[in-house]
Write a structure and sequence with these properties.
With about 55 residues, the chain is mainly alpha-helical. It has three helices and two strands, in the order αααββ. It is about 55% helix and about 5% strand.
C-alpha cells in the first residue's frame, strides 16, 4: 500500500528507488501510479526527482 502522508511517501519512494528500481518510470509501473501524480504529491512538500541520483531531493 502506498502511504498517503507526503513525508511517509517520500521515505517509501526513495527506499524503493534505492533498493528495487533503476528509474522513476520503473517504480511508477511497479506501483501502478502515474509519474505526474507521484511527482505532484512530493512537490507539495518541496521535493523533486533527481535522475542523476535516482532519488527525490
Amino acid at each position: 500500500m502506498i502511504p498517503n502522508d507526503p513525508i511517509l511517501l517520500l521515505s517509501f519512494v526513495n527506499t524503493r528507488l534505492r533498493d528495487e528500481c533503476e528509474s522513476i518510470d520503473e517504480l511508477c509501473a511497479m506501483l501502478d501510479m502515474s509519474r505526474a501524480d507521484l511527482e505532484g504529491r512530493l512537490a507539495t512538500i518541496g521535493y523533486a526527482y533527481d535522475k542523476r541520483i535516482n532519488q527525490f531531493i
